[in-house]
From TrEMBL:
Presence of the UniProt keyword Phosphoprotein in the record: yes
Domain of life per record: Eukaryota
Protein's cellular compartments: Cytoplasm, Cytosol; Nucleus
Residue ranges constituting the HPt domain according to the UniProt record: 38-133
Keywords linked to the UniProt accession: Cytokinin signaling pathway, Phosphoprotein, Two-component regulatory system
A Gene Ontology BP annotation from the UniProt entry: phosphorelay signal transduction system
Protein name according to UniProt: Histidine-containing phosphotransfer protein
Keyword Phosphoprotein in annotation: yes
Entry remark concerning the domains of this protein: Histidine-containing phosphotransfer domain (HPt) contains an active histidine that mediates the phosphotransfer.
Phosphohistidine carried by residues: H79
InterPro entries (alphabetical): AHP1-5/YPD1 (IPR045871), HPT_dom_sf (IPR036641), Sig_transdc_His_kin_Hpt_dom (IPR008207)
Upper lineage: Eukaryota, Viridiplantae, Streptophyta, Embryophyta, Tracheophyta
Pfam families: Hpt
Length: 143
């Protein structure tokens, strides 16, 4: 595969993340922090996000099955999750987190559970997309 084609493929894939609403300008700000001294900065931040968010997802899963539902604890967990998602520009995940927090405020356990399933789907899809993206970027670097 030639370098120019690979670079075009990377650029198109990256562009699609923004067009489809998966990422926002925060991701661009992360990219601007990348330099020769830290060429994998964005990938490292994103990898760290997915590691940390896996723990938060487990905590939220556990809190959602406890009765009575502790909406304040759920909201605290989701606040953390939203903050870390926002830090990498995970727009669709953040939007779902906001919805979840509205359900917490309304003390709506069913709404929280349904929204959390969407959050997990969006999170997994974003992870898959970004892993494929970084794999392409890394393969382009090796050409």
């Amino acid at each position: 595969m030639n370098t120019r084609f690979l670079q075009q493929q990377i650029a198109q894939l990256r562009k699609s993340f923004f067009e489809q609403g998966y990422l926002d300008e925060q991701f661009i700000q992360l990219e601007e922090l990348e330099d020769d001294d830290n060429p994998n900065f964005v990938e490292e931040v994103v990898t760290s996000y997915f590691s940390d968010s896996a723990r938060l997802i487990r905590n939220i899963d556990q809190a959602l099955v406890k009765r009575p539902v502790d909406f304040d604890k759920l909201d605290d967990y989701m606040h953390q999750f939203k903050g870390s998602s926002s830090s990498i520009g995970a727009k669709k995940v953040v939007d779902e987190c906001l919805q979840f927090r509205e359900y917490c405020a309304a003390r709506n356990a069913e709404g929280c559970m349904k929204t959390f399933e969407m959050i997990k789907q969006e999170h997994a899809l974003l992870r898959k997309k970004l892993e494929a993206y970084f794999q392409l970027v890394n393969s382009a670097g090796g050409i």
